[in-house]
Design goal:
The complex is a heterotrimer of chains A (about 230), B (about 375) and C (about 260).
Chain A (H helix, E strand, L loop, with lengths): L2 H31 L5 H13 L2 H12 L4 H10 L7 H11 L1 H13 L3 H9 L4 H12 L1 H17 L2 H7 L9 H10 L3 H30 L10
Chain B lengths: L5 E7 L5 E7 L4 E5 L6 H9 L6 E6 L2 E5 L4 E2 L7 E4 L11 H6 L7 H14 L15 H14 L4 E5 L7 H15 L6 E4 L3 H7 L2 E6 L2 E6 L1 H6 L4 H6 L5 E7 L7 E5 L2 E5 L10 E5 L5 E3 L13 E12 L2 E8 L6 E6 H6 L7 E6 L5 E3 L6
Chain C lengths: L3 H25 L4 E5 L5 H13 L4 E5 L1 H9 L4 E6 L2 H9 L8 E6 L1 E6 L11 H9 L5 E4 L5 H12 L3 H4 L3 E4 L2 H9 L5 E5 H4 L2 H4 L2 E5 L8 E7 L5 H9 L3 H9 L6
Parallel strand pairs in C: 1-2, 1-3, 6-7, 6-8
Antiparallel strand pairs in C: 3-10, 4-10, 5-8, 5-9
Helix pairs in contact in C: 3-4
The chains are: A mainly alpha (about 230), B alpha+beta (about 375), C alpha/beta (about 260).
């Protein structure tokens, strides 16, 4: 059992979820309620990580963040560390490849918020931000919960992109998924088996609790309409 | 118009055509009526700031809320309005008190709760402050919506078909509530409704909207019994609509109208001269049935004899359709059911009615295509 | 506002997370990372352990194909010491200015034919049975490392070409991303034979799973295994580099099946 890999995975998943959630809300809002030029394009871009093979994503991320790139160079001069093969780079990659998992459930939940509820809030004098906080988010909470759980679970399980962008560096980028791969190659089947079982358990518990929570709290008169 | 009134002019061609002008003084309740699709809700949304028309101007209490020429369009938050939606739009995750307090964010927390409870008491909902909307009946929810709109002390109150989603009995009660409340409010109130009776009951003035154009504005009685033209007459549901021609005046100086085989005397109308073609209309309440056993003096006014073509009892009132002798088109009117029973009115029998000359309303002729 | 406690709670959690992440950075920075060719998978942990007992300093080990590590180091990967299974990668990095110097040869690599238990193929050191099995269909899959970026894969290909077997088996290959993965394929039951590093074939973990024969080194270009310090490395890496040249370290290497240069 590679405890440092587990702690690294949990850190990555937690950090990604916390940072991505507000970003996803800001992105999902106009996608749900405005009609702007290029909206279809933005939606397609957001959905891209769902369909692209992780190696393609990893390849482009490596290109964009590598030591020879503008971004990588800037990061290096700022912090003295590389962006690739580091936790920071992994976090950045994680924010990108989790985008659809965070944005889409929130967008669907926002879609379900009746327009009149927002209009009523505006007519009561609530600004756009206050309306978001007091009306839109409380009514869209199942979508937020979905986004949190999906992002968390997906980050724990991501492999291809992590391997390409992070390498396999202990305490830095060796997540549980990578560690399992590593253990298999080291002929440590029991180690691999333990960690695999743990990941399955965590993912299962996450999704089961999401369904349960959504259903139970959702029974209080609100329509949730969302299940995995 | 005093500076506290609401004055609205709106024009647009897209997405639906609009050409509407209205004024509402403080303390006045005007109703916006018209068939569905006539743009009434759109007009209200323009006043609220939820929709931005291509051209126009909205001003209330001296503040300009919208002026297309100057490119000024205040968002709803910056217009002090109270809006009641058709489907209440109460926030399901907040209690009644919290819903009412939604518009009171500018007050400190303690004052907010106090005011919210105060308003809920005013709409007779004390004791129900902590209930969620799904624990309240339709009528109660609408009262909360009303309290929410008014708690902010808005400069104008806008109601979008507020009573159409509730049952008849509740609707009556809510209408009475509104009628009572408005006596204490010194702000312009605009009520959108498709129910002409409701408009008649509640509003001081009625604005009739059709295809986005404001056709006539005036006292409800006037709009409904003295429409400006035949099209409006149809919109307000007047069925006794006919064409006719002005004849030379009678010996008594009254204007005479020839129509549907009848010779009628009508009140003098300087807008029409002998020989003119006119449209005319008479509301059902302008037709009085003669009692066969007890003739009255009034029977001499515009008497019309005919045959009852149809007699339909609608609860306390009975609809009668009369085919005038020598006439081509039917007249419809209503009488209390007990009178119909007493006089034994039935289809096929002869009857005599008086057309009150004061009730006959002349209008320009309809253009024939 | 009833929302204040909620916002406060959320912000507290966020700052806690950020602090934890930051803290973990600080602690993880000290142990240097070592990139090592996969054939050192069993030898290097023992060497690192010996080094730690002697000096009290820790190392972080990463195993993979030499070519992949060379790529990553070119991209700026923060390894401080690189054990390559083929010196050409080290020299390439030196020319790119990534290394301190040209490094040092630490071992010579050998390949072995590994036959897992239950395989219908015989282990003979001139690959005769392998050739027959390829023709008569007993051989369905042959595991080896990817010749494109793993030196042991290149050596395996050269050995096969030397015996005129390359065309015969080239459509039956199961390519491992590195030599250790190739060994893993060979033992997984999905390949009937494998060409893997001798050091892995000899390891206790594999010995129980099959039989092996060492192949002559004349069949391939020598696997000159070179180690080198990467620019920007720290003292621990330098000390380990030195340790690797001590007799104690060399004894461990020999015990695992490496030939000294």
């Amino acid at each position: 059992m590679d405890w440092s890999a587990l702690s690294l995975s949990l850190k990555l998943a937690l950090a990604t979820t916390l940072l991505l959630l507000p970003l996803a809300v800001l992105l999902a809002r106009p996608l749900a309620w405005s009609n702007f030029v290029g909206k279809g394009l933005v939606e397609a871009l957001v959905a891209l990580p769902l369909v692209l093979p992780p190696t393609v994503l990893g390849f482009y991320l490596l290109l964009a963040m590598g030591g020879n790139s503008a971004l990588g160079g800037a990061w290096h001069s700022l912090t003295g560390r590389t962006l690739v093969f580091s936790f920071d780079g992994l976090l950045l990659a994680s924010l990108i490849f989790n985008l659809p998992f965070a944005v889409q459930p929130i967008q669907r939940a926002f879609d379900a918020v009746p327009r009149e509820a927002r209009e009523a809030a505006w007519c009561c004098g609530l600004s756009s931000w206050r309306t978001l906080w007091r009306v839109e988010l409380p009514l869209a909470w199942p979508g937020l919960l979905s986004a949190i759980v999906l992002t968390f679970a997906h980050t724990l399980g991501e492999f291809g992109v992590v391997l390409m962008v992070g390498g396999n560096i202990a305490d830095e980028t060796r997540t549980v998924a990578i560690s399992i791969y590593d253990r298999v190659q080291a002929f440590d089947e029991s180690g691999a088996a333990t960690m695999s079982a743990l990941l399955v358990a965590i993912s299962f518990v996450a999704i089961a609790s999401l369904n349960m929570l959504t259903r139970r709290i959702g029974k209080g008169g609100q329509d949730t309409g969302h299940e995995l | 118009m005093s500076s506290k009134s609401l004055s609205v002019t709106l024009q647009q061609t897209r997405p639906i055509p609009l050409d509407c002008t209205l004024e509402c003084a403080p303390g006045e309740l005007i109703s916006l009526v018209g068939p569905s699709g006539s743009g009434k809700s759109t007009v209200l949304r323009c006043i609220a700031g939820l929709h931005r028309p291509q051209q126009g101007r909205v001003e209330c209490s001296g503040t300009v809320w919208f002026d297309a020429a100057r490119g000024l369009a205040l968002p709803p938050q910056q217009r002090r309005i109270g809006m009641v939606f058709q489907n209440y739009s109460l926030l399901p995750h907040l209690s009644a008190a919290d819903n009412v307090a939604l518009g009171l964010e500018h007050l400190p927390a303690g004052e907010r709760i106090e005011k919210a409870n105060e308003w809920l008491a005013r709409v007779h909902l004390e004791g129900l402050e902590q209930r969620r909307p799904n624990q309240l009946s339709g009528g109660q929810q609408q009262r909360v919506a009303l309290a929410r709109a008014l708690a902010r002390e808005p400069q104008a109150l806008l109601l979008d078909e507020p009573f159409s989603a509730v049952d008849q009995v509740t609707r009556r009660k809510l209408q009475q509530e509104l009628a009572r409340l408005r006596r204490e409010l010194a702000i312009p109130i605009v009520l959108v409704t498709h129910d002409l009776d409701e408009a008649r009951m509640l509003s001081d003035r009625m604005v009739l909207l059709h295809h986005g154009v404001s056709l006539q504005s005036g006292l409800p009685e006037d709009v409904m019994t003295r429409p400006a033209n035949a099209a409006i007459a149809r919109l307000v549901g007047l069925s006794n609509l006919f064409e006719g021609r002005i004849a030379p005046p009678s010996v008594t100086g009254m204007t005479r109208l020839e129509s549907i085989g009848l010779q009628l005397e009508v009140a003098h109308n300087p807008g029409f001269a002998p020989g003119d073609k006119v449209s005319w209309v008479i509301p059902p309440e302008g037709i009085l049935l003669h009692r066969r056993d007890r003739p009255a003096r009034g029977d001499a006014e515009n008497p019309v004899t005919g045959l009852v073509a149809d007699c339909l009892a609608f609860g306390p009132y009975t609809q009668v359709v009369l085919l005038p002798e020598g006439g081509e088109l039917p007249l419809s009117f209503s009488i209390p059911s007990h009178v119909a029973q007493r006089d034994g009115i039935a289809a096929g029998m002869a009857a005599r009615v008086t057309l009150l000359s004061q009730a006959i309303h002349l209008m320009p002729p309809e253009k024939s295509d | 506002m009833s929302d204040r406690p909620l916002i406060k709670g959320w912000l507290t959690i966020c700052s806690l997370v950020v602090c934890c992440v930051m803290a973990s950075f600080c602690s993880a920075q000290t142990a240097p990372t070592v990139a090592a060719a996969a054939d050192l998978k069993f030898a290097l942990p023992e060497l690192a352990q010996a080094f730690e007992s002697a000096s009290g300093r820790k190392l972080r080990l990463s195993f993979g194909s030499s070519g992949m590590f060379a790529q990553q180091i070119t991209q700026g990967a923060p390894f401080e010491l690189f054990f390559s299974a083929d010196e050409s990668y080290v020299l390439m990095l030196q020319q790119a200015g990534r290394t301190v110097d040209a490094g040092k040869l630490y071992a010579l690599g050998r390949i072995a034919l590994f036959i897992p238990n239950g395989s219908p193929i015989q282990a003979d050191n001139n690959l005769r049975d392998l050739a027959t099995a390829a023709r008569d269909g007993r051989l369905k899959r042959l595991a080896m490392a990817n010749p494109e970026h793993a030196p042991y894969g290149r050596a395996a290909r050269e050995a096969l070409q030397h015996n005129g077997l390359w065309e015969l088996v080239s459509d039956k290959l199961a390519l491992g991303e590195n030599a250790a993965q190739a060994a893993q394929f060979a033992t997984s039951g999905s390949a009937q034979a494998g060409l893997i590093p001798l050091t892995l074939a000899r390891a206790p973990e594999l010995v129980a799973k099959g039989a092996f024969v060492t192949l002559p080194e004349s069949w391939h270009q020598p696997l000159k295994q070179r180690m080198v310090l990467i620019q920007g490395g720290g003292e621990t890496a330098r000390l380990f580099y030195g340790f690797m040249q001590t007799p104690a370290a060399q004894a461990i290497l020999v015990r695992h099946g490496f030939a000294l240069p």
